[in-house]
Specification:
heterodimer; A: mainly alpha; ABC transporter involved in vitamin B12 uptake, BtuC; two-stranded antiparallel ribbon; 11 helices; 2 strands; 72% helix; 3% strand; B: mainly alpha; 0% strand; globular
């Protein structure tokens, strides 16, 4: 019984991080119809910022998150201006393909730049409380994992509020549904795209800061996290940002249970199997309600 | 028609040149290795080109098909099977993998195909790394009479097969259906093209070629580090070579591969590890400013020259 509860808590903690990892990807995909293959690499970049802030100035990773967010937001703005906005001229059908190619190139450049600058060593942050666990009725909860879980909840809740309660959020949702109509209604699409791109990359940075404190990062590790983010987005259903967190939890739980059964060597295969099953039986995603009328 | 004859003649001369090359002159081992890698890249690039260039579906997991072809060939060959049968089996396993990921994802929009192939490649890379952590060797008897020449001819032969396959596919009913799908999927479907069927067929062909490339690589290397075949650079290199050369053309990927192999060697010597960064930036610039790749660049220069000399530009009657 205790083992079962332990597995479930572990799954939930991991799943929350998965949700956090995927939410930036889902935002960019929903709003701009861009598939950002470099998403995992931006997660690594955020992790590296947190890592260097900790190593050089001893700033706790959970304290340095605002700095990481600011830095990554600016990176996102630059990314949009330099690489993504030129693609807007091409028709929507080509757009997603070209965005994949360009961000794939970007992934290659950034991965190798990170290897070149910071070596391919595995980095992680060891704070005074790393490895300490909170023991509730025999169930062990690591502090870093709990903090990551709380942070993920906080970020996703904040994003939800931003999208539903503010004027900017309304323009984001309008642009997601129909960019041309939104433009005709007086929404500045360019600015909406710019800021959503900044927020998406910023969310990747937050995920990176969480990952570097509970797991570890390497320059090549981005692809692994990208894979997780993509599977979560497919599970949640395209353009369904609200479902991302739940989909992350589902993936985390399924992984935790199956790793317990099969052993850790086949962890990634489970994600792949889930991906294929969802595509076969519920391509609209687990958490998407059918839109009435279509 | 005359134009076609000229083209066949040129390709015939080039093929004859490469066939006779090792007979006529003693190439150094370095040149030989370079050429073998060039041929393997051409096979992979054409395989990617079939999907990415002609069909408009981006396969981001070439490494999966290549790696599975390589590993299957290796294990069967080491177990005593005839090499050609082993290579064929490698290709077939790649097709099976393509079925697993292609059948569910090709029904949906192109994005799912890209995610699916990337997920397949990554999942395989991590799993193979966990399951086979050590380098695998062929039995030592295979090393005794190792010579590069048969490797060279095998790579050349498979590269020619790949090129011919792409040529035949592009000039068939299938090729027309693919072009129609790429340019406007809905219109193609409405006109009665069975998009899904054609996509699956071409994906199977593409995966088979990638699997064969894996077989050639096994024959060439004899000892493999299993994970190394699944690293993303096996996806990225052919993708990049194809896009730089010109996706959706027959000559583009060849040009791209030649350029890529030369540049890669040159950069690797002068820039060390930073050469990946330079190549990546070059790739991004090509996608942004010259979407048709080098083939389009050559075309533009030719058109510019004809304008300079004041001749009327020739009407071009070709589609690809």
């Amino acid at each position: 019984m205790e083992t079962a509860i332990q597995i479930i808590t572990y799954g939930v903690i991991v799943g929350a991080v998965y949700g956090l990892v995927a939410v930036g990807l889902a935002l960019l995909l929903g709003v701009m119809k861009y598939l950002n293959i470099a998403h995992g690499t931006f997660i690594m970049l955020g992790g590296y910022i947190a890592f260097w802030l900790f190593t050089l100035w001893h700033i706790d990773p959970f304290v340095s998150i605002p700095l990481v967010m600011l830095g990554m937001f600016i990176v996102g703005l630059i990314l949009y201006r330099v690489l993504l906005s030129p693609l807007l001229k091409s028709p929507v059908g080509l757009r997603i393909g070209n965005s994949m190619l360009i961000t794939f190139g970007l992934l290659w450049v950034l991965d190798n730049a990170a290897t070149w600058l910071w070596t391919s060593n595995v980095r992680s942050i060891t704070t005074s409380y790393t490895g300490e666990v909170l023991n509730i009725f025999g169930v062990k909860l690591p502090y870093t994992g709990l903090a990551g879980f709380g942070l993920a909840l906080l970020v996703i809740f904040a994003l939800h509020l931003l999208l539903t309660k503010t004027y900017f959020g309304k323009s984001v949702r309008a642009t997601t549904q129909d960019p041309e109509a939104a433009n005709l209604m007086g929404i500045n699409i360019g600015r909406t795209y710019l800021i959503s791109c900044g927020i998406a990359i910023m969310l990747a940075g937050v995920a990176g800061a969480v990952i570097v404190s509970s797991y570890s990062i390497t320059p090549a590790g981005g692809l692994n996290w990208l894979l997780i983010a993509m599977i979560v987005v497919v599970l949640a259903g395209e353009e369904n940002i609200n479902g991302v967190f739940a989909a992350g939890l589902v993936l985390g739980l399924v992984e935790a249970v199956s790793v317990f059964v099969t052993g850790a060597s086949y962890r990634e295969v489970i994600g792949l199997v889930m991906f294929v099953l969802v595509l076969m039986f519920r391509p609209q995603g687990l958490f998407t309600r059918r839109v009435r009328g279509t | 028609m005359a134009d076609n004859w000229k083209r066949f003649l040129i390709s015939g001369v080039i093929v004859a040149f490469f066939v006779l090359l090792p007979v006529v002159i003693e190439m150094g081992t370095d040149t030989m290795n370079l050429l073998v890698m060039l041929f393997i890249y051409i096979i992979l690039a054409q395989s990617w080109n079939l999907m990415g260039g002609y069909t408009g579906l981006f396969n981001l997991g070439m490494a999966a098909f290549f790696g599975c072809g390589a590993l299957t060939t290796h294990f069967l060959w080491a177990a005593g099977a005839h090499f050609y049968l082993a290579m064929l089996a490698g290709g077939i396993i790649a097709v099976v993998l393509a079925g697993i990921i292609g059948l569910p994802s090709l029904r949906l929009r192109g994005m799912y195909f890209a995610i699916g192939t990337l997920a397949l490649a990554e999942a395989l890379r991590l799993t193979v790394g966990n399951v086979f952590p050590r380098t695998i060797y062929m039995p030592s008897t295979y090393f005794v009479d190792f010579s590069l020449v048969p490797r060279y001819y095998l790579a050349l032969a498979v590269a020619i097969i790949a090129l011919m396959t792409v040529y035949i596919v592009a000039n068939s009913r299938l090729g027309l259906a693919l072009l129609a799908t790429r340019d406007d999927e809905e219109a193609a479907q409405v006109t009665g093209v069975n998009i899904f069927k054609y996509k699956v067929i071409v994906f199977a062909i593409s995966a088979f070629l990638a699997g064969l490339a894996g077989g050639v690589y096994t024959f060439y290397r004899l000892s493999l580090s299993p994970v190394a075949q699944f690293t993303p650079h096996w996806t990225f290199d052919p993708l990049m070579a194809t896009c730089i050369g010109g996706a959706g053309t027959l000559t583009g990927p060849i040009l791209g591969c030649v350029f890529f192999v030369i540049i890669q060697n040159w950069f690797a010597l002068t820039l060390g590890k930073a050469h990946y960064i330079v190549l990546g930036i070059l790739f991004i610039l090509v996608i942004l400013f010259l979407p048709g790749g080098m083939v389009e660049g050559v075309d533009r220069i030719r058109r510019f020259l004809t304008r300079l000399t004041g001749r009327k530009p020739e009407a071009k009657g070709e589609l690809y």
